[in-house]
Design goal:
Elements lengths: L9 E3 L2 E3 L3 E3 L15 H9 L5 E8 L19 H13 L3 E7 L16 E2 L14 E2 L2 H21 L3 E6 L4 H6 L14 H19 L4 E7 L10 H13 L5 E4 L17 H9 L7 E4 L5 H9 L5 E3 L2 H5 L3 H6 L25 H5 L5
Parallel strand pairs: 3-4, 3-12, 4-5, 5-8, 6-7, 8-9, 9-10, 10-11, 11-12
Antiparallel strand pairs: 1-2
Helix pairs in contact: 1-2, 2-3, 3-5, 5-6
The chain binds flavin mononucleotide.
Length: 364
């Protein structure tokens, strides 16, 4: 076995993952306007077998928080049946079935939301909502969306997901509250760091109470903005520590509105994004999932051995070759079709143009 650390089992709270490879959430836009799971989703996740943890793509908690018209949803009970079959498909691969639940806030549009206007913490920050029809969340809206997160988390548990990740990264609603670039509120949800954290902490706490201790309730937390007037690393790490204090057993560390290159120490060959996990990890007692630019198993092994991260998420690498993890397990890494970073997959716009994926013989 060439990668003993990467392939060793890893314990998170009471759960043992069979290895330290994670398939991170990656939207494939294959649902219909009903937001339900299709056969193609099951095929896609089954064909990516091998990671110890597989996290289903961003799934909408509210009808007014969609990222795309063909995004998966978890905002009605009718979604449970399809999601349950999907969780079963993932479990059969030997992975822990996980799911990311999300509200897109000001990055949604009414076109995707059956005419419902998108909502954001504020609409006059230096990063504007994607659509001019976006309106500012009232306190009632905030409470309703928190209730939607709780209902979505309960549905995820009913469907059989054992890891649930609240999406607090990448400029969506959680990030929008946390970052001063998108939150100019003057009430208890804006202004000081504690106020900007309030939505995230309250929502986490409410979901935690709803799902109980047997589910790994995590967050994908964006801990920095690219713009130096935005969320600072210190503020992001403080938020991670507060989520740990709320009982998070693990955190998935990522960026908020972008990531500055300066977080990469001189001489390091790791992606700046991956270094964010390395910055947060020493401040936490719980393990972290790190992500960013991991192309080869050797890079993943080095990241876990060097203490940059506990678990190594491989995004585009697995899209390029869905058998990435299986080939590592079978000691067949030479046959991996390595991601070329050419990015037609980004946001799954033209995945059929991914040269590595074509070479790997994949048709989805
Ligand atoms: C096609 C595609 C879809 C993505 N969808 C999501 C998503 O649903 N949720 C999320 O948090 N990040 C999403 N991302 C970001 C990835 O999870 C990951 O953070 C990013 O690709 C960087 O990791 P990598 O360098 O290993 O690809 C997506 C990325 C790609 C390429």
């Amino acid at each position: 076995m060439s990668y003993p650390t990467l392939l060793s089992p890893f314990q998170v709270a009471d759960v043992t993952l069979k290895n330290r490879i994670v398939m991170p959430p990656m939207v494939i836009w294959k649902s219909g306007e009903d937001a339900e799971v299709r056969d193609i989703h099951r095929k896609h996740y089954a064909s990516s077998a091998g990671p110890g943890l597989m996290i289903v793509e961003a799934t909408a908690v509210s009808p007014d928080g969609k990222l795309h018209k063909n995004q998966l949803g978890i905002f009605e009970d009718r979604h449970i049946q399809g999601l349950s079959r999907l969780a079963g498909t993932i479990r059969k691969t030997g992975a822990l079935p996980g799911i990311q639940i999300n509200h897109a806030g000001g990055r949604s549009t009414s076109e995707w939301n059956w005419g419902l206007p998108p909502l954001a913490p504020s609409t006059d920050g230096s990063i504007k909502p994607d659509s001019p029809e976006c309106r500012t969340l009232t306190i009632d809206d905030i409470k309703r969306i928190q209730t939607d997160f709780v209902a979505a988390a309960r549905r995820a548990v009913t469907a059989g997901f054992e890891y649930i990740e609240l999406h607090y990264a990448h400029g969506y609603l959680g990030s929008q509250f946390l970052s001063p670039l998108t939150n100019t509120r003057t009430d208890e949800y804006g202004g000081s760091l504690e106020n900007r954290q309030r939505f995230l902490i309250e929502t986490y706490r409410a979901c935690r109470d709803a799902v109980g201790d047997s589910t790994l309730l995590s967050c994908r937390l964006g801990i920095i903005d690219k713009d130096e007037d935005g969320l600072s690393l210190e503020e992001g790490i403080d938020t991670a520590c507060r989520l740990e204090a709320e009982g998070a057993p693990i955190l998935h560390i990522s960026r908020a509105h972008g990531v500055p290159d300066s977080v990469r120490p001189e001489g390091s060959s790791f992606d700046p994004l991956l270094h964010l996990a390395g910055k947060a990890r020493p401040k936490l007692k719980i393990p972290v999932i790190g992500i960013g630019g991991i192309l080869t198993p050797a890079e993943a092994e080095r990241a876990v051995n060097k203490g940059v991260t506990d678990l190594a998420a491989v995004g585009r690498g697995i899209l390029a070759d869905p058998q990435w993890a299986l080939k590592v397990i079978k000691d067949a890494e030479d046959s991996i079709h390595i991601c070329r970073r050419c990015n037609p997959c980004f946001w799954y716009k033209t995945p059929e143009k991914c040269p590595s994926r074509i070479a790997a013989g994949n048709t989805i």
